[in-house]
Amino acid sequence: MRSSKALESPIFSHPDSQLLRQYIRRQRRELSIHYRRQAGHAVVRHIRKQSTFMHATKIGLYIDAFGEIPTQSLIKLCLKLKKSIYFPVVIAKDQPLAWAQVKAKYTSRMTSHRFGMKQPSKQRGLSVMDLDVIFMPLVAYDDKGHRLGMGGGFYDRSLSRCMEKPFNNKRSHRQHFKKPYRVGMAYDFQRVDLLETNPWDISLHAVVTPTQYQRFNTVARDSFLH
Ligand SMILES: Nc1nc2c(c(=O)[nH]1)N(C=O)[C@@H](CNc1ccc(C(=O)N[C@@H](CCC(=O)O)C(=O)O)cc1)CN2
Ligand SMILES: Nc1ncnc2c1ncn2[C@@H]1O[C@H](COP(=O)(O)OP(=O)(O)OP(=O)(O)O)[C@@H](O)[C@H]1O
């Protein structure tokens, strides 16, 4: 797919997160279903080459809404590779997400949440730190791996628990990160020059777009925190 340049409008050099959210969410909503589907296939072609993904067992995904990168192809791949897949469940506004496991016929056990997305009907599940890799929706990201989400703080709130603890996975030559490995899913136009950051923000290990799989230098930051 064609790459698009990062947004360079002056209003984003000291970005107002709310304005940026509105701007990118509108762009995302206007994409055709065909364009979105192609993007969903394209990201999978990058993901399947990643050893972190191929070695992972428990994968956190999302059910796309709001024009996000579709996850259907990724779900199919995970199931084909016999991985266990988990979807986020919003329990309450100030609570971390619960991660409910979903098997092949996942569509029958979903409910619509009033925020606008579908989620598993189950109100219980794993904690995010039990997952090996988590694919996260996002509104914008920058080259340092900062992530801007929908503004609910759900991912940051959930992931903050992992950052408080020492390395919670057995470290091998392959695993120099704190579980879960955090991968953002984005269209290329969601990259911005520099995002405004907050103390609670938890950055990404990598981002996958239709044109590339980009790793960030998050390892050093993870290590400082234990
Ligand atoms: N597909 C998907 N699922 C997800 C997320 C996401 O970003 N995408 N989340 C990531 O955190 C959590 C849900 N977070 C959300 C936070 C805010 C809004 C939101 O602003 N929704 C409405 C207004 C809601 C209201 O009526 O109060 C809107 O679209 O304007 C939606 C989801 C968990 N599941
Ligand atoms: N670790 C945390 N503990 C308590 N509150 C938090 C934490 N992380 C975020 N929040 C709260 O969530 C609110 C929204 O945060 P932010 O704008 O960074 O969300 P976001 O990353 O865009 O959303 P999401 O992660 O759901 O996609 C903030 O006002 C903040 O007070």
From TrEMBL:
Q: Which reaction does it catalyse?
A: (6S)-5-formyl-5,6,7,8-tetrahydrofolate + ATP = (6R)-5,10-methenyltetrahydrofolate + ADP + phosphate
Q: Name one GO molecular function term.
A: 5-formyltetrahydrofolate cyclo-ligase activity
Please name the InterPro entries in this protein's record. Answer: FTHF_cligase, FTHF_cligase-like_sf, NagB/RpiA_transferase-like
Species source reads Aquirhabdus parva
* Gene Ontology annotations of biological process type: folic acid-containing compound biosynthetic process; tetrahydrofolate interconversion
Which residues of the sequence carry a binding annotation for substrate?
Answer: 63, 68
Q: Which cofactor does it need?
A: Mg(2+)
Name the record gives this protein:
5-formyltetrahydrofolate cyclo-ligase
Q: Which family does it belong to?
A: Belongs to the 5-formyltetrahydrofolate cyclo-ligase family.
Q: Kindly state which keywords UniProt assigns to this record, in alphabetical order.
A: ATP-binding, Ligase, Magnesium, Metal-binding, Nucleotide-binding
- Lipid metabolism as UniProt keyword: no
Give the superkingdom in one word.
Bacteria
Give the EC number(s) under which this enzyme is classified: 6.3.3.2
Residues the entry annotates as binding ATP: 147-155
